[in-house]
Write a structure and sequence with these properties.
Elements lengths: L1 H7 L1 H6 L4 E13 L6 E5 L4 E7 L29 E2 L3 E13 H8 L9 H36 L8 H15 L4 H35 L7 H5 L2 H13 L1
Antiparallel strand pairs: 1-5, 2-3, 2-4
Keywords: Coiled coil
């Protein structure tokens, strides 16, 4: 939103250094859950609910929460377990309009050197941050595939859904629930679905080639894994293209 507003109002920004505008942000809102018998894992540093409902009622046991890795780092917010607490409320993201100024945005993106930047440089810095978050989102999505694959392997009745199928369910849920910001999330999920189709194809191709390798025992097939190392890099490049 900020990038579009600044791009559409460059003349006003040039004429008035402190161009004012309104932009919608998702901000955390506390929802009371006292008396429900449910527990939360809230991060006080991020002001977010990382796990709800959680079975761990005591703060000293939060390292056992299912969203903590073996080293005690939260897999949701990346903060240590001891800044997470069980509280009588959970956080929910709600959309609010906030007044911003072009000067404040410029200071935010001009870097540690505090050097003046042009409007064009400002837009480039914003786009760079957008792509960074998209790449992180892509990495998180890719990390779910081994989990889904493993769950299917150990399940008594393997789930027939593919990655794109799961994303379709998420899109349908967003359309039905209409929670604040759902339109932007749907747009992001649709981009992810395009990437998921490519990733799923790469995984299928890898399985076929590995089966062929085991069957023929051909030494030339030892290149399979090394060739697949570039899949994630290819995925990130493709995602940056469709996101631009």
């Amino acid at each position: 939103q900020i990038k579009k507003i600044l791009a559409d109002n460059q003349d006003q920004i040039n004429a008035n250094k402190n161009f004012q505008f309104e932009v919608e942000f998702l901000v955390p809102k506390s929802i009371d859950i006292s008396g429900t018998g449910q527990f939360t894992t809230n991060c006080q540093k991020c002001q977010s609910t990382c796990h709800f409902p959680c079975r761990e009622a005591h703060d000293n046991d939060k390292h056992r929460c299912s969203v903590m890795d073996r080293s005690g780092i939260c897999m949701i917010c990346k903060c240590p377990w001891n800044v997470h607490f069980n509280q009588k409320y959970r956080y929910e993201m709600v959309k609010e309009k906030v007044k911003r100024s072009s000067d404040a945005i410029r200071q935010q993106y001009q870097g540690a050197k505090n050097e003046a930047i042009t409007n064009e440089q400002l837009l480039k810095n914003i786009q760079k941050e957008i792509k960074k978050h998209e790449a992180q989102l892509m990495e998180l999505m890719e990390s779910t595939y081994p989990c889904i694959q493993r769950l299917d392997e150990i399940a008594l009745r393997p789930h027939p859904f593919s990655g794109p199928d799961y994303i379709d369910l998420m899109i349908a849920a967003e359309k039905q629930e209409h929670r604040p910001g759902y339109q932007q999330r749907i747009a992001t999920l649709q981009k992810l679905r395009q990437m998921a189709e490519i990733t799923a194809k790469l995984i299928r191709d890898k399985r076929v080639r590995l089966k062929s390798h085991r069957r023929h025992r051909n030494p030339s097939h030892t290149r399979i894994d090394s060739e697949l190392i570039g899949c994630r890099r290819y995925s990130a490049i493709y995602f940056s293209i469709i996101g631009s």
